Structures are given as structure tokens and as C-alpha cells.
């Protein structure tokens, strides 16, 4: 495989989890059970939850099956293309899930804080656009990250000191200067995660405040009812 004028390594070797040989079967069974529960435990009952369930199943499938195969055999080789696909899939699904959590938090905010306006704001068309925006945002984010990493030359070591192809482990295998890559990756992923987290936190902050106001009003109403009952007595 050619990148520029330099020959790239044809495959990578996933070192995986560091464990004793006698633990291979127990670890395989443990992760297999977790994987099965993850895949089978997502029955969608709601529009956004439908997408979230699919993401939970596929994000596990992007990394776990290859790790399970490594427990059963000594071969932990993954092709260069397979490594690219694995890294892209993991970040694509992860960032899409991050966007989806943010939109779900906004939907909950409308349900609790603006119940009379929720039906007019979160129409079926808007929900479709938000879901589509989550997938498009995840695609753009992951394409940028993947292309930015694999434009580097990989001509030397090919042992990935991790159980799947992820950015930090892959960057350690190139002889090129990765300072810019590390900085851009940190800023990009950090900005995405922090922005989604702050938006979710803000939404649930408003929800908690609204719930406290409702409880306060209910408490005042109950106290007035009790006072009225005492006066009648």
C-alpha cells in the first residue's frame, strides 16, 4: 500500500489486553457475555432511543469481535484497511452518539420546561433532521480524524499497544512529527465532548430547576389546604 513515495506497512498487530495465557478463555467468555448483553439489551421504544440502541450495538461491534477473536487464537493481525475502518467506525459511532445524547437532553428540556410548546417545536420533521444531523456530524468528525491520522507514513513498527486501532496507539507507530496531530486531535475531540457535555448539563440544570419549582408550588398548595382544614375545625 502506497502513501506518497513511502511504503506503508501492510497490516498491524493488536497487542490487546495484557493478561496471562490461562486467562484467555475466561476473558473471552466475560467479554462475549458483555457483548451479547449489549447487543440484545437494546429494544427501541422511542424515536431517538431507536437510533441510540442501534449505536450502542454497532459501537460494540466495531471493536469487540476482533478482540474476542484474539482471545481464541494467537493471530491478532488486522489489515491496514481494517485498522482504518475500525478507527473510523469507532469515532464515527461515538461522536454520533454524543450528538444524539445532546439532542435527547434538549427534547427532555422541552418536555419538562415547555410542555405546551414541545409538540409544535419537536415535530416529526424536526426529529428526523436532528437524527440526520447526528449521523452527518459524526461522519464529518470521523472522516476528518481518520484522514488526518492515516495521511502520516507508517513504515516501521506495526504493533498496536491496545486492543483496537485508536488514535493515540496509532500515532506512536509513525516516525513523523505528530505534535500537530496530537494537538488537533485533542482540541477537536475535547471541544466536541465539552460542548455536548455543557449543553446536556445546561438542559438538565433547567429540568432540575423546573422540578424544584413544581415541588415548591405543590408544597405551598398542600400547606394552604392543611391550613384551610384546620380553620374549619
From TrEMBL:
Membrane topology per record: Multi-pass membrane protein
Does the record carry Hydrolase as a key word?
no
Q: Which SUPFAM superfamilies match?
A: Family A G protein-coupled receptor-like (SSF81321)
Protein's organism: Cavia porcellus (Guinea pig)
Tell me where on the tree of life, at the top rank, the source sits. Answer: Eukaryota
**What are the GO MF terms of this UniProt record?**
G protein-coupled receptor activity; olfactory receptor activity
Which residue range or ranges hold the G-protein coupled receptors family 1 profile domain?
27-233
- Which keywords, in A-to-Z order, does the entry hold? Cell membrane, G-protein coupled receptor, Membrane, Olfaction, Receptor, Sensory transduction, Transducer, Transmembrane, Transmembrane helix
> What GO cellular component is one of the record's annotations?
plasma membrane
Give its localization. Answer: Cell membrane
Which positions, given as ranges, span the membrane? Answer: 27-49, 77-106, 126-144, 189-209
The question of whether Chaperone is a record keyword is answered with: no
Q: What is this protein called?
A: Olfactory receptor family 10 subfamily G member 6
Amino acid at each position: 500500500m502506497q502513501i506518497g513515495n513511502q511504503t506503508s506497512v501492510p497490516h498491524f498487530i493488536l497487542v490487546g489486553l495484557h493478561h496471562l495465557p490461562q486467562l484467555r478463555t475466561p476473558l473471552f467468555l466475560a467479554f462475549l457475555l458483555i457483548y451479547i448483553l449489549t447487543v440484545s439489551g437494546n429494544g427501541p421504544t422511542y424515536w431517538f432511543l431507536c437510533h441510540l440502541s442501534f449505536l450502542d450495538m454497532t459501537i460494540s461491534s466495531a471493536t469487540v469481535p476482533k478482540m474476542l477473536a484474539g482471545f481464541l487464537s494467537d493471530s491478532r493481525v488486522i489489515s491496514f484497511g481494517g485498522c482504518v475502518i475500525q478507527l473510523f467506525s469507532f469515532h464515527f459511532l461515538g461522536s454520533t452518539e454524543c450528538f444524539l445524547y445532546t439532542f435527547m437532553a434538549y427534547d427532555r428540556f422541552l418536555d419538562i420546561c415547555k410542555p405546551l410548546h414541545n409538540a409544535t417545536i419537536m415535530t416529526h420533521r424536526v426529529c428526523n433532521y436532528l437524527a440526520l444531523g447526528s449521523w452527518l456530524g459524526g461522519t464529518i468528525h470521523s472522516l476528518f480524524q481518520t484522514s488526518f491520522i492515516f495521511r502520516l507514513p507508517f513504515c516501521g513498527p506495526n504493533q498496536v499497544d491496545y486492543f483496537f486501532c485508536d488514535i493515540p496507539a496509532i500515532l506512536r507507530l509513525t516516525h513523523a512529527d505528530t505534535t500537530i496531530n496530537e494537538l488537533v486531535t485533542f482540541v477537536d475531540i475535547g471541544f466536541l465532548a465539552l460542548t455536548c457535555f455543557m449543553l446536556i448539563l445546561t438542559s438538565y440544570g433547567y429540568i432540575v430547576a423546573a422540578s424544584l419549582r413544581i415541588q415548591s408550588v405543590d408544597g405551598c398548595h398542600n400547606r394552604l389546604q392543611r391550613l384551610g382544614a384546620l380553620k374549619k375545625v
